[in-house]
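Give me the fold.
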Amino acid sequence: ELSTEAMAAVNSFTFLAQQGFYEGSFFFFVNSNYFAQAGDPTCNVSGESICSGLGSPGYSLPVEGAVGGHDQWAVVAPAVLEGQEVHGSQFRILLSADERLDGKETVFGMVVDGREILEGLADFVPCSVMEVDGCVLGPDVSPALVIEEITVEPA
């Protein structure tokens, strides 16, 4: 369920989803006690690039911090490494609440269906943002949760 109050993040997510931007990409970081993150175009099952955790559509968005809290199942546009902006394509699904991030990232949705899939995820870290130079995506990403298709429909 997408928020009606985080229009920049919702518009970006919707536009990219309609363009097939997310298809074949995978959740490149999963901490089963915290969050699962996806939306980096370099993290794709095609194996054509090294999953850096830094990929984007080429733009960032302003923080829409007044919207929602970082509750369990929130869909969040995470902050860019420096500054008051969030990623244009990357998103996290919070597997547990983290109010420390309220106002620092944009909450633009909530998972309402399929939570059991997310609850069953094992920790998965094929590469590290902190070690980009040494990051090598192994040929086996079979444990990763792959996005096959995202469909955005009116409420």
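Residues 37 and 93 are 6 Å apart (CA to CA).
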